[in-house]
Amino acid sequence: MDAVMPYAMRFICQSQCRRAINVSSLWSFLVDGLREYPSKMGKIMKPGKVVLVLSGRYAGRKAIVVKTYDEGTAEKPYAHAFLAGIDRYPRKVHKRMGKNKIHKRSKVKPFVKVVNYNHLMPTRYSLDISFEKFSAKDLKDPAKRKKLRFNTRVRFEERYKSGKNKWFFQKLRF
What we know:
Blueprint (H helix, E strand, L loop, with lengths): L6 H9 L7 H14 L12 E5 L8 E8 L10 E9 L10 H7 L3 E8 L3 E7 L15 H21 L12
Antiparallel strand pairs: 1-2, 1-5, 2-3, 3-4
Organism: Pieris brassicae (White butterfly)
InterPro entries: KOW, Ribosomal_eL27, Ribosomal_eL27_CS, Ribosomal_eL27_KOW, Ribosomal_eL27_sf, Translation_prot_SH3-like_sf
GO biological process, one term: translation
C-alpha cells in the first residue's frame, strides 16, 4: 500500500498519528483543509484585458473586456463579461499603395457582446482603450447598440492608425 500511495498522502497519514485512514475520510480531511484556507487568487478578467472568443459567431476573434460581472446578474446568473471586439480585421497595407486604398484597407468591423466566461480565453495582453460610457444595458436597444458599435469602430481605427498594439489587429490563424 505504501508504494502505491503518493508522497503527499503518506505524509498526511503519518501526521495523523499513523492511524488507519480509509480513502473517504482522507478525502474529507483534505477538502475540509481547503475550506479553512480559501485561495487568494487575483482576478484574471479585468476591464482592458484582451481575450479570445472560443465559441459562437465570433469564435477566434480578439476582444477587450469592457466590464465584468463576476457574480452574474438577475437575467444572467453566471459570470460573464461585456466585450468589444473585432469581427473583420484591417487588411495588409504597403508603402506603394495610395491614400485612398490605405484608408479603405484600414477599416475595422467591431462587435459588442455579453459573453459567458466559459467561452473566453484570457491572454497576457491588456489595452488601455477607454470604454467608460459603455454599458451592457445599451445592447437591448438597437439604436444604442449601433451607436456603441460606431464608437467602438472609431476607437479601434484610431488605435490601429497610431501603430500601437499591432498584435490585436492581426487575424488569429488557427
